[in-house]
Predict the structure of Exocyst complex component Sec8.
Amino acid sequence: MDETERIATSPSSKGRETSEFLMRIVRTLSHSADFEQREKEKARIDKAYKQSDKKLGELVTAHYEDLTKVTQDFSRMSKCINDSRERITKIREDLSSCKTLLHCKRDELRRLWIEGVEHKAMVALLDQVELIKEVPVKLDNFIISKHYLHATDLLVNAVAKLEKPLAGIDALRDLKAELIARNEQLHETLIEELNKQIYAAVPDQSVSLKRSSSYRRGSNLTKQLSDPECKQTKPTELLKPPEMMDLNKEIKEDLNGNPEENPAHFIAVLVEALFVLRKIPDSAERNKKMKDPLGIKSKIEPELSAIVARTSQQVVDSYAQQGESLSSQNQPRFLLELLENVFHQFRNVARMHKIVLRNLQRIIVSGVPVRNELLYDMNDVWSKIQAVVSIDIEIDYG
């Protein structure tokens, strides 16, 4: 087979080589003057064509299944491509229409979006109003159960909302005035509860003392008076010493427990509640807005005097029940029992003041600025105790 046949029958010939082969045949036939030569060339081309056709038929027969599959896949792919083109064309048309419509409705859409934002803000505001309206009831429940820290947090947060985000709502003005008044009432309640824990929680001993042991304990009275740290065996002394309190511990309140079960923790809660109310200076000294303007420091002497008066009356009543009169020969025995009872209560009062001062120190350590002259210390407590012992008891039994 010559070069012409090889090129014609080669299955791997490329398009450019095929084109050159055809051009060569055309030139050969056009330049040949001999008819016989042209017929011979034609026969050779025809023979190469038949061989190629035969080989093509064999290849088609051998690869009929693959060819059929390829043809089907091509048809399916071609259909998918056509469908995709149609969908893309439709999407483009729809996007163009949407763009035109959005451009026409831009101002209306902006207005609707602004209205939507306003409605969301209004709904949130109404939710806050509903929560604020429930504050008085929740506050009463917390105060009744003596969970003062939760009550204080609730009240302070409610007042803060009424002064800023809800300040423009006229319907809440009365509620705001009520909650501000409740703020002062809660301050008074906290001071009263704190004084109760310091003074009223100390049990009186006059009824429980045994008469036979009064003179025997008299020899220890001088030592107790001179040593304010003398150990006691009363239940209140089972409290954790104030010096051992952790100043960094966060004060928490258990809604499921009894707040007064642990007096030391209850005092810490009361002081923390006063701090949340921002009433620490007023609570330590005095607040003229309160019905009882005396603060913790100012009430030390009156409360101690009340303890002396109450204990004196109990001693007199106790001996009166035994048929004894307050005669001159019995006064030393009455005075001894009075001093024992009073000084026991005074030591417990001093211990409670230590707990209060320790919690005040915890607040100062946390970085809260408090003027020292508005606070007090144990020297103030013991000086008041000495003054009351020397003055009030002398008046009663002098």
Remarks:
- Residues 65 and 227 are 114 Å apart (CA to CA).
- The chain is about 70% helix and 0% strand.
- The radius of gyration is 52 Å.
